[in-house]
Amino acid sequence: MRIISSVREMQSLVNGEIRTGKRISLVPTMGALHEGHINLISEGRNRGDVLIVSIFVNPTQFGPNEDFTNYPRDLEGDLRKIENLGVDIIFAPTQEEIYPVEFQTYVEVKELQEHLCGHFRPGHFRGVATVVLKLFNIVKPHVALFGEKDYQQLKVIQRMVRDLNLEVEVVGYPIVRDKDGLALSSRNVYLSPNDKNSASQVSKSLREIKRKFDMGCRNTKLMVEFGKKILEEAGVNDIDYLEICDSETLGSKELASRGDLLAVAVRIKGTKLIDNIRL
Ligand code: AMP
Prior knowledge:
6-stranded parallel sheet; 3-stranded antiparallel sheet; 9 strands; 18% strand; globular; binds adenosine monophosphate
């Protein structure tokens, strides 16, 4: 497993691999790896000849009052966690390598970035799209793997790939959860055992709403109110959104249909958690 921090070195290495006909797969991450990442990395091994994992905490996707400085970073621990997964290259650039001082070019996916988390994190998806496009240009993957936990991110990237005619296949993988149903996240380390109890109610509220849908309810307002009540009873009062929306456009809906996305974002003692489920 080689660790590369230079963009030029990464590009020349991957150019050599591509010249010999190798298929490149990329798993982009911000590190502090957990089983959700591990699952993507194992899948990535099956999808290409050269498996590259990027680890980069991307400053441009954090708002001024968000946790960029405190975001968990543990490169050594990450390397240990993935040493037996057949990763060929870890691309772990510095901030200056990705954003040199004169940097001034950004990508925006105009409509998809406005919904759901977009209301609460202005500029977030612009930062995501920009760094992912840069990673695609540096690593030149044939296939890139993303988690459905960040469903809006996945849709933004798929749209960008289509709109800009990028030659990369973007594949989404299901959410990995702990035994209580909590979606794994690098940010879960901020949660105390008590907070984790409340956090596990987030996925429970989604499952309960889906149960209502399966029983025939279609009124999204009623379903959302019902879900919010479950959250509030569990002490989760800081809800950014709980929404039922079209799974492609991410526009919110009045009447739910099968396949719609039910998405939620909450803060538990300031820690932002997101989750989703398909109806
Ligand atoms: P992050 O390091 O949080 O930026 O995540 C890197 C990749 O892992 C993204 O594609 C995420 O969607 C994915 N990911 C994070 N948590 C999970 C999870 N619990 N299940 C599946 N994929 C995940």
